[in-house]
Amino acid sequence: MKELLRSTDPTVIAFATALLDGEEIASFPVDVHMSVLEGSIGILPRRLMVREGDLTRAQRVMRDNNIEISERP
Fold first, then answer.
1. Taking the domains of the chain in order of start, what are their residue ranges?
2. CA–CA separation, 34 vs 22, rounded Å?
3. Alpha carbon of 35 to those of 2, 10, 51, 54, 64: distances in Å?
4. Which InterPro entries does the protein's record reference (predicted)?
5. For residues 43 and 5, is the Cβ–Cβ distance under 8 A?
6. How far apart are CA 32 and CA 45, in angstroms?
7. Does the model's pTM come out above 0.90?
8. Could you read off the pLDDT of 18-32 as tens digits, one per residue?
9. I want to staple 34 with a disulfide (CB 3.0 to 4.6 A). Which of 16, 20, 44, 72 is the partner?
10. Which listed CATH number (3.30.70.790, 2.60.40.1180, 1.10.150.120, 3.30.428.10) goes with 2-64?
């Protein structure tokens, strides 16, 4: 699994997931329950992961919809 994007805004993760589902690209959100540790103030980012083989397609979908993606090696 590779990190596609990282955001403190849960609506961005939800929108990105919907876009990927529409393109039949499997995704997996991580860090979604970190609010328990941070006290629900939203400072810790959530990440959206995709399969390594789908990363290039998923990045293209995000760019086409003006969603900032993670640029990590």
1. 2-64
2. 27
3. 22, 11, 25, 29, 30
4. DUF2007, N-reg_PII-like_a/b
5. no
6. 9
7. no
8. 999 999 999 999 987
9. 44
10. 3.30.70.790
